[in-house]
């Protein structure tokens, strides 16, 4: 069966930034199940998978605007506002506490004395990413799965 709207797919994938820079996060493999055609996948990824069958291997590069967005606006915070211990180095991802007492991740752009110049954009922002996907299973979605897709996903799908 080919991937098309209203199919449920199970895929195994890895992801990594395009280029030679160090990537301090696990690349995978990850496994997920998703409903096709209902906004549960990143549009560029879904488009690349359309028509693939079980066992197919698909590679697609998603541009920054199609994956994690562009690098967010810069801000300055005090060193003392960083909640975890450890080196404060350019490129490191750390956290601060917002006014609602929720952790808010940021990437260090520069260390300027007792202040940090940071970006609150997604750590993967501004980079194209390569997805290597293997389609494990394709089946028709049930009516219950399609109905459930009408419930918004917080933060969007992958």
TrEMBL record:
Question: What is the predominant subcellular site recorded for this chain?
Answer: cytoplasm
Top EC class for this record: isomerase
Identify the EC number(s): 5.2.1.8
* An annotated GO cellular component: cytoplasm
Q: Which residues form a coiled coil?
A: none
What subcellular compartments does it reside in? Cytoplasm
Q: Which UniProt keywords apply?
A: Chaperone, Cytoplasm, Isomerase, Rotamase
Instruction: Name the family the entry cites.
Output: Belongs to the FKBP-type PPIase family.
PANTHER family found in the cross-reference section = FKBP-TYPE PEPTIDYL-PROLYL CIS-TRANS ISOMERASE SLYD
Query: What's this protein's name?
Result: peptidylprolyl isomerase
């Amino acid at each position: 069966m080919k991937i098309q709207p209203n199919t449920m797919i199970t895929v195994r994938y890895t992801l990594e930034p395009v280029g030679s820079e160090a990537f301090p996060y696990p690349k995978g493999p990850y496994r997920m199940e998703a409903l096709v055609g209902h906004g549960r996948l990143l549009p560029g990824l879904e488009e690349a998978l359309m028509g693939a069958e079980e066992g197919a291997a698909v590679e697609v590069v998603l541009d920054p605007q199609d994956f994690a967005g562009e690098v967010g606006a810069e801000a300055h915070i005090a060193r003392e506002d960083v909640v975890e211990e450890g080196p404060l180095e350019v490129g490191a991802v750390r956290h601060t506490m917002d006014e609602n007492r929720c952790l808010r991740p940021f990437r260090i752009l520069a260390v300027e004395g007792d202040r940090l110049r940071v970006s609150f954009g997604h750590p993967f922002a501004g980079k194209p990413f390569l997805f290597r996907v293997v389609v494990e299973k394709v089946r028709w979605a049930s009516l219950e799965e399609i109905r459930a897709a009408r419930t918004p996903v917080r933060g969007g799908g992958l």
